[in-house]
Design brief:
Length: 186
């Protein structure tokens, strides 16, 4: 297991034994983001996403000594303009009592190194506009804000309504992607 260490800051790939702690921290992040009631992640769901038959999610953890104090969960994207993959950072979190000593920077540096090793051209993420500390931190690393882009999402009833329209029925050539349950991983 590869570790990157800088003055007591250690980052490594997530392993199955880390899942319970990472799920706890995802719920802490949801509380921080004022959305605890919207977070439904379970240990089983994260285990399947990270270590199931066809994982589509990847992760790193930051450690202080032997204690996990932060995490990054990410997945691959693809740039049609560049013609190569990139990384989308779904969540980055460091527990409050361990912030400001390099864990978040080490997690991001590890992902940047993953991009460079794999020939990926992008590391992207979203940040809440009210999280000014995070915005300052990301700007200090050289990240640029893509002000001209806005995030859009379909979920819940609007997602189901669109999927039930004749437009979806006419989407010839689409093969359903098996769910983890259908593929035997759930």
């Amino acid at each position: 297991m590869r570790r990157e260490t800088l003055a007591g800051v250690s980052v490594r790939r997530v392993v199955e034994a880390d899942i319970k702690t990472v799920v706890e921290m995802v719920h802490e992040l949801a509380s921080f983001e004022k959305a605890a009631d919207q977070c439904h992640l379970t240990v089983d769901a994260l285990r399947t996403a990270l270590f199931g038959q066809a994982p589509a999610l990847f992760g790193h953890v930051a450690e202080a000594g032997e204690e996990i104090v932060g995490f990054a969960l990410w997945f691959r994207t693809f740039s049609t303009w560049d013609g190569v993959h990139g990384i989308y950072l779904e969540d980055l979190f460091v527990r409050a009592d361990h912030r400001g000593v390099g864990h978040g920077g080490a997690l991001l540096a590890g992902l940047a190194a993953e991009c460079v090793r794999q020939g990926y051209t992008r590391l992207e993420w979203s940040v809440l506009d009210w999280n000014t500390a995070a915005l300052r931190f990301y700007r200090a690393l050289g990240a640029e804000s893509l002000e001209e882009w806005t995030v859009h999402r379909l979920s819940g009833a609007p997602l189901e309504r669109l999927a039930a329209t004749p437009l979806a029925a006419g989407a010839r050539g689409f093969r359903p992607v098996p769910s983890p349950t259908e593929s035997g991983t759930g």
